[in-house]
């Protein structure tokens, strides 16, 4: 058994190697790598602000972690000026845990990842979703006579039709939807995508979503590979023209606001709405799990707000005890 050694390299300078490790040895998706890098940037910033920039891995103690947790909960504000919720705080702490696990695997003496406790959340997660009528109000906001309007309508239609994650949608290319040349107005198309954890799954594009994708693609006069592109002038490389996650988040938030919706609406809200709609129309939880690309059905069970209502409706409709005429006196 190899004993751990004390590194003379400060904690912060180990992070780039950790990100490389995530890609090469762990095989994590590009999106997960970016998230870890982004979350750990805040940890590095905190080290600088607290004069711990030169802190070595073996010098990191539980007191530092506690102070960092207080910083996440009480001091740090997002670019929008809001404090982090418990769920968001945990994303930063999970990234730190993963980094400490990496140090342990490299036999670098440091604080065990088990010392990083996560913020407690409510047992039942509240799912934010839209009723179909509210979603329809959002759909008519973009001016589809313009390039960006046709694009934004196609994006929202695709989200609701497929339940895709935003990272999956932004990574699509025009080659992947070449089948849309088939203009059958009643056909639902299938598309294989690489989702979270590099798992391949099939998503479905409804006839209406397919039609809006065709309209958007017909408005393009370029040969860029990304399916959804920005209107930035002067960009010549494919990746420079790929529409960013942030741009889509802002677009959806804007459409919701202009549609008069009071709740916060994000791309993930549309994914939740997709799952909720399927369950409300009779889909079983296992099928929805597969359509969403959830590895474990427990993840899908957050949609109990729908399944519980369906069970109650079924009980009220079919259980003899609910019908007074079936009771014997």
Automatic annotation (TrEMBL):
Chain segments annotated as transmembrane: none
Q: Which GO terms fall under biological process for this protein?
A: cell division; chromosome segregation; DNA integration; DNA recombination
Where does the secretion signal sit in this chain?
none
Q: Where is the Tyr recombinase domain?
A: 125-316
Alphabetized UniProt keyword annotations: Cell cycle, Cell division, Chromosome partition, Cytoplasm, DNA integration, DNA recombination, DNA-binding
Q: Which SUPFAM superfamilies match?
A: DNA breaking-rejoining enzymes (SSF56349), lambda integrase-like, N-terminal domain (SSF47823)
Positions of the Core-binding (CB) domain: 9-104
Compartments reported by the entry: Cytoplasm
Spell out the PROSITE patterns in the cross-references.
CB, TYR_RECOMBINASE
Q: Name one GO molecular function term.
A: DNA binding
| Gene Ontology CC terms, in alphabetical order | cytoplasm
Q: Which InterPro entries match?
A: CB (IPR044068), DNA_brk_join_enz (IPR011010), Integrase-like_cat_sf (IPR013762), Integrase_catalytic (IPR002104), Integrase_recombinase_N (IPR010998), Integrase_SAM-like_N (IPR004107), Tyrosine_recombinase_XerCD (IPR050090)
Keyword set includes RNA-binding: no
Where mainly found? cytoplasm
Designated name of the protein:
Tyrosine recombinase XerC
Species of origin: Candidatus Kaiserbacteria bacterium RIFCSPLOWO2_01_FULL_51_21
Query: Organism classification, top ranks?
Result: Bacteria, Candidatus Kaiseribacteriota
